[in-house]
Design goal:
single chain; 443 residues; alpha/beta; Gyrase A, domain 2; Four Helix Bundle (Hemerythrin (Met), subunit A); Rossmann fold; 6-stranded mixed beta sheet; flat
Length: 443
């Protein structure tokens, strides 16, 4: 991390302003070398400054602010220049900083440096990307609480208890002539069971974490012309899919995200299911069945305006939930009188408040159900916690079975390592590469 890095920290494309960020030992020196007048504003004070090319010609004028390490985002000296948001001018200012000695930053390198310099733990570093990607209020709240260190503190409390228990067990290994007193062994077992319960509580949030980050995979399923695309458009609030009375209009899947009471619903409009001789339509129908197999929720929609017939069969996968929706309630045929289902009209919007309530209740995913449990583990945390849980289970069985203390201690060390990986306390070179490769450049 000896190099001073630079990157555009604002979104790509044209805008009102752009932000270019430098971080490293030479950040102040490089900024002075390309700046007219060569005087930096005081740390955390904004100054109007011009960036010049090698001939002294002004490239751009904007606001420059400095942050002296270690009291900066990365823990290093940081310079941020806010200039005009044109594509050409922004790129030229970036090139000027590179010409002066800065190296282009890789994805997530600023946040990686913040982690390496002790400004945040690994869970907080991951929360930065969650915060940027948040699409709903619940996802935003979860990311903020993780960024505040809530998950890291919880894992550190588990690790501290586990460390004490491991030290206790290894004391018996150092003094083999001392047998583990049955009463002491039971106390150790009780502690390990409490830790196992705490880990189980975190693991229980994994599904919530996936939903917050990826959304509820919600497949709209039905025969042609029952209103699948109309339902998608109505939930989105604008026309995203083509609506036509001609059967087979939708042949490929259409995917969009909608915010339902703070929870992201990843809506997937699919091809209508029917027997078809059209090769392309058959391929679309095959994709529909594939989407249903991976769904968290299937919205099965039927047409009330037609005479009641047996609806298309669908096999709902284990874990997925189904909601029966009856569309065109304003045109209901009398044959549907005894059929239960949520009646709506995509044309008029009738019943959509009830539909939102039914989805929220079915999934138990609104803010009232989630309460304070808004910090949810991601897939990496889940893998670490699962390993820790397995190690603790073996350690408890070993302790109760009177096995050699070294066997128990080995399991405890494995659990300790697994929990430590969550916050990045142990060697995490491979983990870092995986995490920060998913970041945007400039963050």
């Amino acid at each position: 991390m000896s190099e001073t890095i630079v990157a555009i920290a604002s979104p790509p494309g044209m805008g009102a302003v752009s932000v270019i960020r430098l971080s490293g030992m030479r950040a102040f020196e490089i900024a002075v070398s390309v700046m007219r007048g060569g005087i930096l504003p005081k740390p955390r004070r904004v100054g109007l400054r011009s960036i010049e090319d090698e001939t002294g010609r002004v490239i751009d004028e904007g606001l420059l602010v400095t942050f002296k390490g270690p009291g900066s985002y990365t823990g290093e000296n940081v310079v941020e220049f806010t200039g005009h948001g044109g594509i050409m001018v922004t790129r030229r200012v970036l090139e000027r900083f590179v010409e002066a000695g800065a190296a282009p930053a890789g994805p997530g390198e600023f946040t990686q440096r913040a982690f390496m310099n002790g400004r945040m733990d690994l869970t907080q570093a991951e929360a930065v990307m969650d915060l940027i990607s948040a699409q709903t209020s619940m996802a935003l709240r979860s990311a903020n609480e993780q960024l505040d260190g809530r998950l890291g503190r919880t894992c550190e409390a588990i690790r501290a208890k586990l460390l004490g228990t491991t030290a206790h067990m290894e004391a018996f290994i150092d003094f083999p002539e001392e047998d583990i007193d049955p009463q002491v062994g039971e106390v150790l077992c009780k502690t390990l069971l409490e830790l196992s319960t705490s880990i189980a509580g975190l693991l229980a949030t994994a599904d919530q974490g996936r939903i917050l980050r990826e959304g509820v995979r919600t497949v709209i399923f039905g025969k042609p012309n029952v209103g699948k695309s109309s339902l998608l458009n109505r939930l989105l609030g604008y026309q995203r899919a083509i609506v036509s009375s001609r059967e087979g209009t939708t042949r490929d899947t259409i995917e969009e995200v909608v915010n339902l009471r703070g929870i992201p619903l990843r809506l997937i409009d699919t091809a209508g299911v029917r027997d078809s001789s059209d090769e392309i339509e058959r391929e679309g129908i095959a994709m529909t069945h594939g989407q249903v197999a991976r769904a968290d929720l299937v919205l099965v929609i039927r047409d009330l305006s037609e005479c009641l017939v047996e609806s298309a069969k669908v096999n709902i996968p284990d874990g997925a939930r189904k909601l029966d929706i009856l569309n065109k309630s304003d045109l209901e045929d009398t044959s549907w009188a005894e059929v239960k289902g949520l009646r709506i009209s995509c044309e008029s919007g009738d019943g959509f408040d009830d539909l939102e309530s039914a989805i929220a209740e079915l999934l138990s995913l609104d803010e009232a159900h989630w309460g304070d449990h808004s910090v949810a583990v991601n897939a990496r945390h889940q893998a670490c916690l699962t390993r820790a849980q397995s190690s603790l289970t073996r350690a408890i069985a070993s302790l109760r079975g009177g096995d050699d203390p070294e066997i128990t201690a080995l399991d405890l060390r494995e659990a300790l390592t697994a929990v430590g990986e969550i916050a990045g306390i142990v060697d995490t070179e491979e983990i870092l590469g995986e995490i920060f490769s998913n970041f945007c450049i400039g963050k």
